Amino acid sequence: MAASTLISLAAELASGRIRVVDLTQTLSPEFPQIALPPEFGQCLPFRVEEISRYDERGPAWYWNNFSCGEHTGTHFDAPIHWVSGRDLPNNATDTIPVQQLVGAACVIDCSREASADADFLLTTDHVRRWETEHGKIPPRAWVLMRTDWSKRTDPVAYQNYDETGQHTPGPAADVVRFLIEERDVVGFGSEAIGTDAGQGHHLRPPYPCHYYMHGAGRYGLQCLTNLDLLPPTGAVIFCAPLKIMNGSGSPIRALALVPA
Amino acid sequence: MVRLDAGPTLVVHLHGGCAPPPGRVRVGARLDKSGQGVLVAFPMDEVSNMADDRQLRDMTCDPKFRKVLVTDGKSEVAQAVVRAVINAGADLVWVGYAEPWKRSSGFAALEALAPVTLVPLDLTDSRSVKQMAAEIGGKVDILINTAEVHRTQGIASRNGVDTARAEMDINYFGLLRLGQEFGPVMRSRGADGQSSATAWVNLLSIYALSNFPAHGTFSASKAAAFSLSQCLRAEMRPSGVRVINVFPGPIDDEWNQTLPPPKLSPAALAKAVVKALADGIEDVYPGDVAEEWLARWQESPKTLERELSV
Questions:
Q1: Substitution target from A49, A152, A162 for chain B, most B beta carbons within 10 A
Q2: pLDDT tens digits, residue range A17-34?
Q3: 3-class secondary-structure state, position B128
Q4: Residues B295-299: contacts with CB under 8 Å, at least 24 apart
């Protein structure tokens, strides 16, 4: 059964009846990185330095060195990233069970709300309404919050700072607990620079998505793009982090399989 | 030929405004285009547009009529420098900025100044530096590198190397990246008629001479930058583009909040930069603290090391 499923999957991929959608932002020096207040340590932005380009440094080959943080670009958050998940077993990028890195995605469209209110918070009521239309979120699924935030190609608009700080959409505290405790999700993904809202530090607890998800051994994906190309249900995503020893996260190439 | 009141007769450069012989002149020292010390005879009294004398303009780097790049406009010092070079008559001032999503007080106001054009420039990003050198490098007459990361730590007061690396990445590697991209094109324009490339200013620190342990990693990054600036100076010298190093003591900014006065105001620092350009001076130690520490360092480096460490 399983073998034939895979064989037919391969055939569907080859024929184009199943499409692969790239959910990843390009790693470039211009893509903004998360910025903390200057007294805290900072995540490195993506930087690239040429080693050689068919020149005297290496005549027949082109290659680069790059540098970045574990949380640069489209990336994965492991439970060990947050203090609430620091003592869990298998909580780092090298020990996470890989079975959990491929799974069904439920895409909740909040694009209208986010365009009206940059501080929009996804609530349990919103998810329940989504479920009346698309069915109950199955166990061990990924919940992806579509906001179309990734369409903000200007880094200033993407970061969206003002004198009170950053304004980006995210989940309210109650919905994070609901998704973990009542829907057993494997993780939560967002298009903005964090899984939590830009003003998430004012919620109780601060950064509820990080606090609860990682405290429960669940994962986070952020800086996703192309969520508007996914159906509300029926897509399967691949989001494996690099196998960094004891890593808290990693840039990823997030991919989704969708029916054409 | 000028006979000094002190006796000797010398061959000097003669300012165009000097009265015909046998008149009296003032004799001053300057660096010529090759960086050699020379004597110049000036008219006894100020004449109009003194700095426009062709020979003098060649020896100095007066911002008047020149095009200036200030590499990072987000700091108070940079904003004061921008205003000072505009007041000194600069034609056009490109002001770089990195991480556009981060706000900084005073930066937005620069845009309202007529000679200012804001340009994206991130000294941690080689591609960004290359791009900006390609776009404007052939027009920059004076480059003033104000980009700086300043954190207040020694070795034991903070774990890890991330902030020290950030200091090195801007303060040292940033200068290296600028030097690789803007250096060659400015060198090629060292004798480009009336509006040639003329100066490169590095904002260093008096701590480049001797480590201030409370700001120990910052000092180390400035010492590295100082050393590299000497390399840059040697490489620029044949073209006549002067490298000017500025060594201020503590500046009155937020990263020096916990230091007691006296601290150098950004405006005073900017004034010293413009004066150094106008006089064509290579090394500037603006403010009392810098002057005092320079004197001690010249007298005995060990004494300054000891004093900075208590």
A1: A49
A2: 999 999 999 999 999 999
A3: helix
A4: B297/B209, B297/B210
